[in-house]
TrEMBL record:
This is Cinnamyl alcohol dehydrogenase 9. Gene3D superfamilies: Medium-chain alcohol dehydrogenases, catalytic domain, NAD(P)-binding Rossmann-like Domain. InterPro entries: ADH-like_C, ADH-like_N, ADH_Zn_CS, CAD-like, ER, GroES-like_sf, NAD(P)-bd_dom_sf. One of its GO terms (biological process) is lignin biosynthetic process. One of its GO terms (molecular function) is zinc ion binding. It comes from the Eukaryota. The gene is CAD9_1. Pfam families: ADH_N, ADH_zinc_N. Its cofactor is Zn(2+). Residues 23-351 form the Enoyl reductase (ER) domain. Keywords: Metal-binding, Oxidoreductase, Zinc.
Length: 359
């Protein structure tokens, strides 16, 4: 018989897990593996709440294996090192993002694209090399192979910096890969949530002109006044959408739910590119006419490799980019998830794990 999560490994761990598709999270005792030679043990300080966590706890993609401890925007302190670990010291502040393992030898791993490795292992709800299940950052500690741990720049705060580990790399990588960084070009950011608001900040650091495309008129003042966007377009206003036809060079779509992309494609100039990052459960509809007439491109992108994740953190440190966060206690997570489902967060919840996770 399989061992209970609490008895599987030697390091006793405590976190919050969802047990079924209600998505309700509650206290959960489990365990982490003993440090191997390449492993780093990390005391978790903060963990961001990504919409992917919400998709997962509610089993919106139909693949969740309960119990699930979510969390893949982790900042913590190194507490223990395996024998081969030379790049970190005990006491260092480090980050862990969306992945904790890959094959390390395929053509993607060999080109610093572990995120596209066919054997990619996610931080939670994924099976590790040893055959046991991974649990994420809504917990007191984690053990991670040093290759998948990043140095956290001194100037970045642990709470507002944590979301960069997913939201940050999710927008930085496609902007570079798809050539969406030419200063002065016009970027539309669809959905002003956790990923979207970081896209605005990183886009500004690349020198782009940015229009936020949103369903929430109440976000306009902050988008322009606080986040630095140049303009704001309410996507449910047909007249304003029409007035913006053919004005954008690039669009980053971060919407978490099914939505029409045809109106977004009309906003692009000829040769424009739309990169979709959201992961709605229901497929989007692609209108080929809108691509053909104007030679437009639609692409996707999934986080980024480890080398690029470190590069992104250093870039954000240099440009003083952090997320705008609402810091919550662990026992406020269910209310936070309800608010996240309603796009009611400015703009990322981050759990103060170290100060609020009490057994
Ligand atoms: N590709 C990747 O590597 C990657 C990484 C992280 C997350 N994701 C995915 O990206 C999506 C966004 O994540 P997030 O954490 O940024 O979520 P989020 O904070 O909930 O933001 C999503 C935003 O989308 C807009 N939105 C929500 N429902 C909508 C609807 N029905 N129609 C139009 N707009 C709607 C809202 O913005 P407005 O209020 O401004 O309209 C909302 O704030 C999720 O699906 C997540 O799983 C992908
Ligand atoms: Zn995420
Ligand atoms: Zn690989």
């Amino acid at each position: 018989m399989a061992k209970a999560p609490e008895d599987e490994h030697p390091q006793k761990t405590f976190g919050w897990a969802a047990r079924d598709s209600s998505g309700n999270l509650s206290p959960f005792h489990f365990s982490r593996r003993e440090n191997g030679d390449d492993d780093v043990a990390i005391k978790i300080l903060y963990c961001g709440v990504c919409h992917t966590d919400l998709h997962a706890v509610k089993n919106e993609w139909g693949v969740t294996r309960y119990p699930v401890v979510p969390g893949h925007e982790i900042v913590g302190i190194v507490t223990k090192l395996g024998n081969n670990v030379k790049k970190f010291n005990v006491g260092d502040r480090v980050g862990v993002g969306v992945m904790v393992g890959s094959c390390r030898s395929c053509e993607y791993c060999n080109q610093d694209m572990e995120n596209y490795c066919p054997k990619l292992i996610f931080t939670y709800d994924s099976i590790y090399h040893d055959g046991t299940k991974n649990y994420g950052g809504y917990s007191d500690m984690i053990v991670v192979d040093q290759f998948f741990v990043v140095r956290f720049p001194d100037s970045l705060p642990s709470d507002a910096g944590a979301p960069l580990l997913c939201a940050g790399i999710t927008v930085y990588s496609p902007m570079k890969y798809y050539g969406m960084t030419e200063p002065g070009k016009h970027l539309g950011v669809v959905g002003l949530g956790g990923v979207g608001h970081v896209a605005v900040k990183i886009g500004k650091a690349f020198g782009l002109k940015i229009t936020v495309i949103s369903t929430s008129p109440s976000k306009e003042a902050e988008a322009i006044g606080k986040l630095g966007a140049d303009s704001f377009l309410v996507s449910t206003d047909p007249a304003k959408m029409k007035a913006s036809f053919g004005t954008m060079d690039y669009i980053i779509d971060t919407v978490s739910a099914f939505h029409a992309i045809a109106p977004l494609l009309t906003l692009l100039k000829p040769n424009g590119k739309l990169v979709t990052l959201g992961l709605p459960a229901k497929p989007l509809e692609l209108h080929s006419h809108l691509l053909v007439l104007g030679r437009k491109l639609v692409g996707g992108s999934d986080i980024g490799g480890m080398k690029e994740t470190q590069e992104m953190l250093d870039f954000c440190a240099k440009h003083n980019i952090t997320a705008d966060v609402e810091v919550i206690k662990m026992d406020e997570i269910n209310t936070a998830m309800d608010r996240l489902a309603k796009s009611d967060v400015r703009y990322r919840f981050v759990i103060d794990v170290a100060n609020s996770l009490s057994k």
